[in-house]
Every structure is written in C-alpha cells, then in structure tokens.
Amino acid sequence: MKILANDGISKSGILALEKAGFEVITTKVAQEQVANFVNKNNISVILVRSATKVRKDIIDACPGLKIIGRGGVGMDNIDVEYAKSKGIHIINTPASSSESVAELVFAHLFTGVRFLHDSNRNMPLEGDINFDSLKKAYANGIELRGKTLGIIGMGRIGQATAKMAVGLGMKVIYSDTHIPKKDIKIPFFDGQIITIALHSQSLESLFKESDFITLHVPAQDEYVIGEKELEMMKDGVGIVNCARGGAIDEVALVKALDNGKVLFAGLDVYENEPNPEITILMNPKISLTPHIGAATIEAQDRIGTELAHQIISLLNKSLVN
C-alpha cells in the first residue's frame, strides 16, 4: 500500500510506516495535480498538513483513497463528512502539537511586551548610530507576571497555554461554551503536580478583564474579535492569534493598533493566507510568524509517529480492505 505524505512527514513516521510494509512517497505534488498523482500511482493514503486541501473534487476523483490523514488539529482543509460518507477514514493528531503552539503564543507575548519585533527591525539599521534613542524607545516594557490572560477556547492547546501562563504567575480566565469547567494539572520536573480549577465565563467578561487575549478556536464563519469586541477590551490589551485566520477582523485590529486601544498583536495566521495584507505585514505593532505553530522538531516527530500508528492500527483491525 502506498502513502502520499504531500506536506511532508517526520523521519520517525516514515520509518514506522516502512517497517509495517508501506511505501511512503514524500514528493510534493501541486494542488491541481493531486488527484491525477493519486490515481496514477495507486495511492491508498494521503497525509496532509495545512497546505494541501482534500476537497470533494479530489475525493470524487480518487475512488482508491482509503485514509486521509491530517498532521495537526484542525481539519478545515478536508471535506471530512463527505469523505466519511464515501467510506474513507479520517485521522488527525490533535494532541501532538499542543505544547509547540502554546510556546509560540508566549513567544509572541514576550515579543510584544518587550517590543522585540520592532527592535529586531531597527537595531540592525540604527543600533550603531541611535543606540540611546532606541534604548529610550523600548524602555517601557511590561511584565507578564501578575497579569490576566484570557483564553478563548479551552481545548488541548488552550489547556497547554493555561499551564504555561500559571507557571509564569499569570491569572488565567477562559471562555468556552463546550467546556464549562476544567481542572488544569501542571506537572513539574521533580514529579510534583498541582491542579488549578477553572470555570468558563462569558466572552464579554473575558474581554473586559483580560490584559492579554489568545485565541484557540477552529475555523469560524464569523469574526470572534471584531470592532465591537475590541471596544469592550482594556486599553493597551495584547492579542495573539495562533489558531485560525479569520478569527480576527484584521481591518478593525489595525485600526485599534493605530489608535492605541491595542498595544500589540501577535499573529501566526491570517485572513488571506498565504498572502497576508500589506497593512498587517508592515505594521510595527504586530509580531509576525508564517503559520508555524506546530513547526517544531518535537511536534513533527510526534505527529509523524502518531499518524503512522493510527494507519497501522486501522489496518490491523481490518477496518480498511
């Protein structure tokens, strides 16, 4: 059986699959050529991350597909229910990248409160001639400790983010209509574990109470944060989105950054991926990364291994003929 890992897969995942007798193809196939490649090469399993889309047209054109795998959490690039209706198994790795995404959230938070995104642009240009001026410009940093972090969405990544926030001495609040309460267990290096009991609250109260806000929601039909929501927030709030593009109204965000309502934003995802708006890319108050939340060596290793185990398990249980 042949597997096309069109957006790549870790070496550990390849080794596990090859050991089980699969042929793993890592050739990057252009989106418009995926269906043809799958049929021509008798591909039974296609593995993707966020780049490749497996929509109804590919599903209809590829009757030999037995499994579609998503390396990561969200599956908005796959027509999941339609694939299932055709008897195709859908797998993903919801737990593998949680820590990596949460760490990126804090990379953006630390960057924002200490102006690292802007100083890293200006120091190479002016550090040798305007050192004292830059020192003054970036002198009003803010500590995260003691501040309130509002988490929108308390899934696995939201929980990982909450653990890190508590470890930093932050107060954590969250809003999630599907998870009314959550006990956050925080393990330490010496084997000790502490448990923090959290309860969901309304989005409106979260907006009003939070010093910093981070989003951990699936793809949305409407904005979670728009002009009205921004007005509810504290002056000088920091906002991070490492979840999905389209969760924040970027036009309203830029306006709020320009008028000082929002101190900074950290964005890993964008409304118009892979072509973010120039007003976002050039704004000096936005810390920018190119959708790399799960892009750590450790996370990709876990993702590849977990996908391999799920595929092997499906076959061992004779769920795929």
In short:
Residues 9-317 form the D-isomer specific 2-hydroxyacid dehydrogenase catalytic domain. The chain has 321 residues and is α/β, with parallel strands linked by helices. Helix content is 37%, strand content 20%.
Commentary on this structure:
The radius of gyration is 22 Å and the shape is globular. The strands form 3 sheets. It has a 6-stranded parallel β-sheet with strand order 7-6-10-11-12-13, with helices on both faces. A 5-stranded parallel β-sheet has the order 2-1-3-4-5, with helices on both faces. Strands 8-9 form a two-stranded antiparallel ribbon. Helix content is 37%, strand content 20%. Helix 1 runs parallel beside helix 13 and helix 5 (98-113) packs across helix 8. It has 13 helices and 13 strands. The chain starts with a strand and ends in a 5-residue tail after the last helix. Helix 12 links the parallel strand 12 (262-267) and strand 13. The model has no long low-confidence stretch (mean pLDDT 95). With 321 residues, it is α/β, with parallel strands linked by helices. The protein has helices at 11-19, 34-40, 56-61, 80-85, 98-113, 116-126, 131-137, 156-167, 203-209, 227-232, 250-258, 278-281, 297-316; strands spanning 2-5, 23-25, 43-48, 67-70, 89-92, 148-152, 171-175, 181-187, 193-199, 212-215, 237-241, 262-267, 286-288. It holds the Pfam family 2-Hacid_dh_C. It comes from Flavobacterium taihuense. This is D-2-hydroxyacid dehydrogenase.
